[in-house]
Amino acid sequence: MALTLSELARLVDGDIVRGELDLLVDGIASLDEAGASELSFLGNEKYRALYLVTRAGAVIVPRGVEEGPEGCALIAAENPSFAFGLAVKHFVASVERTFTPGIHPKAVVDDSAKLDPAKVRIHAGAVIMAGAEIGEGSEIGPNSVVGENAKVGRDCLLYANVSVRERCLVGDRVIIQPGAVIGSDGYGYELVEGRHVKVDQVGIVEIQNDVEVGANTTIDRARFGRTVIGEGTKIDNLVQIAHNVQIGKHCLVVSQAGIAGSARVQNYVVVAAQAGVGGHVTIGAKSVLAGRAGATADLEGGQTYSGMPARPFMEEQRSRALIRQLPKLVERVKALEKKTAPE
C-alpha cells in the first residue's frame, strides 16, 4: 500500500528534510535501481556517489544531511538502515512471517512430546522426540529434529534441517536458520595407550531469548554444565562455537568465526569474520575482534583488537607499517655493508 511522505516519516520515526508532504511512495529499492515513486536509503558513506545520482523519489538519510539529488525527497533518521527496514516491512508483505498452526501428517511427533497442535506449526518430515517441548507460536521446519527432552520456547522459528539435540534449551523468539546444529558433541578426546578415547559430553546448550543462529552454524554441548548463548546475540552462518563456551548478551559473531572450548565472550562483543578465540580465553565487554584476528590471551573490554596474536588495533597497525618498511631497510643494510666492507 502506497504511503504519503508524511505517513512514511511517521512510520520510520524520521523528519522530512525536503519534499512535498503528499508525495506518494509505493515501493522500496536500492539507490541505483529506485524509481520516482520508490524509497531508498543512504546508510554508508561509501554509497554517497550512488546517492548523488539516484532517481529515487525519496531517500532516508542520516541526520545532518540536507543536500541530495534534484527532485528527491529526504527523510532524516538516526539510523537510516533500521528505518529503511521498517519501510521494507510495510511494502513487502512476504517479509512478515505468516503463521498457520497445525501438524503436517508426514511429521513425526512422539506421544510424550508436550505441545499444543492448535498453537504450533510442525512441517513435513520434522521429528519431535520423546519428552520434547514446543512453546506456543513456534514453527519447526521441514526435516528438523527436536531431540529427547529438549525445549523450544514461544514464537521460535526453526527453518529446514535444524537439529536441536537432547535436553538442549532454546528460549523465546529464537530464529535458527537452515542446517544449524544445536548440541552436537564437544570435541574432546584423551590419548590413552596410544589411542584417542572419546570423552563423554554430557552437558547441554542453552540459547536465551531473542537469539538468531545462522545457517550451518554449530554450537557444541558442554562436556558438563552448559554452553550458553546470551540474550539478543546474533550469530552468522558457518560459525563454530565449542563446548562450555559462554557468550554474553547482544553480541555479534560473524561468518566463519571460531570460538574454542570454555572461552568467555562478555556482553556486546563483536567477533568479526574468520576471527578466532582460543580456549579458556576471556574477551572483555564491548570489544571488537577484527576480521581474522586471533585471541590467544585474555583481552580487556572496550577496545578493538586485530592481528595474530590479537592486540590493540593501532598497535597492530604500527607493527604492520614497520613490516612493510623491512625490504627497504634490508637494502639499506646491504648498501652499508658494502661501504664498510674491508678492501
TrEMBL record:
The active site is at 243 (proton acceptor). The keyword Metal-binding does not apply. Keywords: Acyltransferase, Lipid A biosynthesis, Lipid biosynthesis, Lipid metabolism, Repeat, Transferase. Its EC number is 2.3.1.191. It catalyses: a UDP-3-O-[(3R)-3-hydroxyacyl]-alpha-D-glucosamine + a (3R)-hydroxyacyl-[ACP] = a UDP-2-N,3-O-bis[(3R)-3-hydroxyacyl]-alpha-D-glucosamine + holo-[ACP] + H(+). InterPro entries: Hexapep, LpxD, Trimer_LpxA-like_sf, UDP_GlcNAc_AcTrfase_non-rep. Pfam families: Hexapep (PF00132), LpxD (PF04613). It comes from the Bacteria. Signal peptide: none annotated. It is an enzyme of class 2 (transferase). Residues 22-89 form the UDP-3-O-[3-hydroxymyristoyl] glucosamine N-acyltransferase non-repeat region domain. Catalyzes the N-acylation of UDP-3-O-acylglucosamine using 3-hydroxyacyl-ACP as the acyl donor. Is involved in the biosynthesis of lipid A, a phosphorylated glycolipid that anchors the lipopolysaccharide to the outer membrane of the cell. Homotrimer. This is UDP-3-O-acylglucosamine N-acyltransferase. It comes from Luteolibacter rhizosphaerae. The gene is lpxD.
